[in-house]
Amino acid sequence: MTPSGPVSAFAALHHRDEPLLLPNAWDHASAVALAAQGFVAIGTTSLGVAAAVGLPDGTAATRDQTLQLALNLGTEDFLLSVDAEGGFSEDPCRVGEFARELSVVGAVGVNLEDGNQEGGLGSAALHAEKIAAVKAAAPGLFVNARTDTHWLGDLRSPAALVRDTMARLDAYQQAGADGVFVPGLTDPEQIAALVERLDVPLNILYSPTGPTVAQLGDLGVRRVSLGSLLYRRALGAAVEALGDIRAGRVPRGEAPSYDEVVAHGHQRHGFTTPASASVPARISPPGPGSP
Fold first, then answer.
1. Mean pLDDT across the stretch 264-290?
2. C-beta atoms surrounding 155 within 10 Å
3. Is the pLDDT of residue 212 over 70?
4. What is the pLDDT of residues 136-174, one digit of tens each?
């Protein structure tokens, strides 16, 4: 799995001894907070972007919001990969144009899925056309081609599912994908078998009930995404804190201070940030003066 031709900094992260652990953000504050923990690359989560504005995920409803988030994040110090659902169009040319716009605002990677807007699997041939269009419109963009064969809970036999998954990944590789993504796949033997047959890095979605990041690395996985997990954990933490307060308890867990969150925006716009409000390398416990 040695990359050929010019290797971008982001592409190079997929060819190290350990897999790239990619946390997924849903807004500017979450992205900067995650990068402050030492992550040089940050992805976005389409669910988080959609849910934040009350729109359904996976229905091509958040093209503008996704592009705006990329614009907000593209000038930051970290490498940005954008979850673009299926490219927000069934027209490969329009998908390619959207990818070009992402590249212009600073994104270095894009995630394209083959699930359709009706909640099923789309055409592998059409998805391959989208990938080729993206590589033509934005040659430097790292295309992570996702197949939803496992994610959608396919009821076919395991053998048939494996055959379809590999056939799709083969088509996406040949269309120019720089990496492939199979969310929902957690079986170690199947993961190792895919790695053996692929010519590009394999991305797996982390599952709390599946292999650890280290175990996935041992299987040959080169990228581990967190998807919407952090967004959903953040929602859960907010509800849990509210429950504690309502029950008369001090909220558990840690939270950044008001000033620390404000500092993210100050730094982005070049404002002077008070020393007491510098972005922490570690999130601090809430203090009595933290609104």
1. 52
2. 7
3. yes
4. 999 999 999 999 999 987 767 888 888 999 999 999 999
Strand order, beta sheet including 223-225: 20-22, 223-225, 202-205, 179-181, 142-146, 109-113, 79-83, 41-44, 24-25
Q: What is the mean pLDDT of the chain?
A: 90
Q: What is the pLDDT of residue 50?
A: 98
If 0-12 CB within 10 Å is exposed, 13-18 middle and 19+ buried, where does residue 164 land?
Answer: middle
Q: What would the CATH number be for the domain defined by 9-227?
A: 3.20.20.60
Span 57-76, mean pLDDT? Answer: 97
Instruction: Name the pTM for this structure.
Output: 0.89
Give me the residue spans of the domains in the chain. 9-227, 254-291
- Amino acid (1-letter code) at residue 184: G
